[in-house]
Amino acid sequence: MSSRDTVDGTPFHLLPEEAWLRALADLERLLELQRTAVVRGDSRLPVAGHVGLSSSKQAAGLIRLVHSTGEARSEVVELADGRVRLLVVPLFSEDPDWLLVLQLKSLDASGVAATAARLVHAAPVIECLRAQAHALDSQAQAQAHRHALEALAQVQRHRQFVAAVMALCNTVAARNRADRVALARIDGWTARVVAVSDAERIVRHTTLVQRIEAAANETADQQEPVFLPAAAGITVAPVSRALDQLRVESHASCAAAIPLSGRDESVFAAIVIVRREPRVWEPAEALALMEVASLLGPALDCIREDQRNPFMRTLDRTAQVMRLGPGGSHPWIRLAGVVLAALLILSMFVETPHVVRAAGTVTLVDQRAVAAPFDGPLIEVRTERGGRVQAGDVMALVGIDGLTSEIEAQRAEVRALERRAATARAQGEGTAAHIGDLRAGEAKLQLDHLVDLASRAELRAPCSGLVLTGEWEEHVGQSVARGTLLFTVGTEDSWRLRLHLPEAHIHDVATGQPVRCTFLTDGFRYIDGTVVWIAPEAKVQGAVNGFTLDVAFDELPEWLRPGLRSRAEVTVGSRTWFETGAGFVATPIREWMFRLF
Fold first, then answer.
1. pLDDT value at 324 more than 50
2. In this predicted model, what pLDDT tens digit does every residue of 573-589 receive, in sequence order?
3. DSSP assignment string, 501-521
4. pLDDT at 129
């Protein structure tokens, strides 16, 4: 295999296991052997065949010796199943990494010559393996070049560095079915995320962005690509802690970090890829990504160099325009300056609402539980999940196991105790009459308790609202235990839109501010609301640290349901056009000062 097919001497592409096993079966038949195996000499890992042929230290030493010298060797070694004679020969003359291990039938060295002679007749089998390996490598290289040229075509459509990088991230994400592809620019010892696929704006100071920058710094320091987890044949950089931490925190199955080198061979950026699809990086994917990095690195470096000093470039272009024509500056340049000055003055007085945007979910914050008051069969269910109830509506009926007979027995006992007390009082036994009255009163209390328990057989709604949980229609006739949660009812006045606001905007938001809620339900629908509650502490949600807000709706339409997603715009004040424009300039400077100090 040529050097273009390898990274640090490790081939990217391996043959399918079926091809190896089919070739080994042919070799065993032609050479009259017991067992065969193909191993990688640099790692002594069996590629196909019998694993036990390279398991002992003696066999590993023989494989290491043949790999270093490139000459066939034969020795008697000790394996788990006894002493055997192994013959190790290079499989491909142009690639000493691939070795063929043969177990001879006898321990006598005389069989080595016979086996070596038969190897000549097995040359077509080895030639077929070589042809298949070269065909796979050529196909993978052609596919990698095609992907790299497609990415280069997308990047060269843009003259701005950020736009070109964004096109690269989107192309790589679509080609590799990645959930997130980011490019971080390396400046000395600092990495800064420039673009993220399918994202118009990068939220700084989040855990995800910090992990991406740490992974980019890690691969830039080593100047080697990192693939986690990697299939056989892909070399993984020795240090990959930051990338592994990014993979774990983003709940992804695999991740990769690839450095980008400029025209002077120095690393100026790194691509970080995160994918949740449950599979490892394949050699063909790794080769394609490496080809994209090697081809697009110099192209992006040229675009970056052209825009390194935009202020001086703007001055040069302005001076060039001012020098056009024999009479100096043109009148249209003065007119453009006057128009720009007028627009600048106008922008200081024209105000527009300043809004903060966040996503949220509709929920009912006040929820009441309805449980079974005692053990008994579920006789009837009169409501279902998603239905609306009024306070006091009967939601279900629970049967009374033996409670009616117990009430009648208790009533009989009360009457008997009352008669005894009356008889004792008529006979002049005051003490016995008093004791009888006390016992009769105690029995009446027990009777009242049983009657109250019987009255609770009808489970009524504790409030007016929406039934959130409770699907018991299929359980009618079955017994339920005391305390079993049957229904959960959300009160009508507790409809809220729960938002997660990034911590960068928390100082602009306060209770009482108006909110515009947008729902994608049968087209766009809008509901106005008000901020009524702000959480006292921040929490991490979706790798973004922020605060929870509750928004109360001004109206409750019929189509509103718990769980609906909404995009909310909180009006936090008003700003002039000049302040808005200055904010776009001041925000990056403020973030840079925050990171610096």
1. no
2. 877 777 777 766 766 77
3. EEGGGGGG--TT-EEEEEEES
4. 72
